[in-house]
Amino acid sequence: MTRSTAHTTPGGDPTPDERDEKAVARFVEDLASALTEMGVPRMPARVFAALLTTDSGRLTAAELAANLQVSPAAVSGAVRYLIQVGMVRRESEPGSRRHYYRAPNNVWDEVIGIRDHLMARWTGVLREGVEILGADTQAGERVAESVRFFEFVSTELPRVISKWRERGLGGDGQAAERADEPADRAR
Questions:
Q1: How many Å separate Cα 140 from the centre of its chain?
Q2: Which residues sit opposite 58 in a β-bridge?
Q3: Is the overall model pTM greater than 0.85, yes or no?
Q4: Which end of the chain has the least Cβ crowding within 10 Å, N or C?
Q5: Residues 114, 90, 176, 179: what is their CA dihedral angle, to the nearest 10 degrees?
Q6: Do residues 22 and 5 touch, judged by C-beta distance below 8 A?
């Protein structure tokens, strides 16, 4: 699809109807690849990227399968994983048996919160390692450095998340920017 200027937003961005769908599909795959490099399994990464990039904010398993050109079974396993790690929520509408999947607006601070719990676990295991290896050995010193790193990060993460929320950036990421814009441009 070719981008025209007739239907762009005041900021010059394309409207959902005039997006280049091939470019969007490439972006979904690029984002999924980046997530995979960070340790997210491939199919959950693709499903998450598809959910994050849809304007409706939610898709059914059938829509995900069609968009990603994969089997419903692949989507089922992916959303199960994403729900377990807090990156996706399952929703349903009253009277409907259909489930919708959505990436929460505050997905990143939720993921970081989960990682914070993991870091606490890692720190505990590493502390045991320091005792086992001996704090005065080279191996013990390396493991102790890991303990100090995770303690530092665990102390700082809540402050970072709090600052993020104070700036009003937890929803669509543009609240603070719009507050500084003239009223006619913010719409």
A1: 35
A2: 102
A3: no
A4: C
A5: -160
A6: no
Domain segments of the chain as ranges: 16-102, 107-180
97: part of which helix (H) or strand (E)?
none
- Strands 89-92 and 99-102, how do they pair? antiparallel
Tens-place pLDDT, residues 115-146? 778 888 999 999 999 999 999 999 999 999 99
Query: What is the DSSP secondary structure assignment for residue 14, as one 8-state letter?
Result: P
Q: Residue written as tokens 């814009």?
A: 181
H-helix segments, the chain: 21-37, 42-52, 61-68, 72-84, 107-133, 138-166, 175-180, 183-186
**How many other C-beta atoms are found inside a 10 Å radius of the C-beta of residue 182?**
7
CATH for 16-102? 1.10.10.10
Distance CA 170, CA 178 (A): 14
Q: Cα(33)–Cα(28) distance, rounded to whole angstroms?
A: 9
- Distance of alpha carbon 168 from alpha carbon 73, whole angstroms: 38
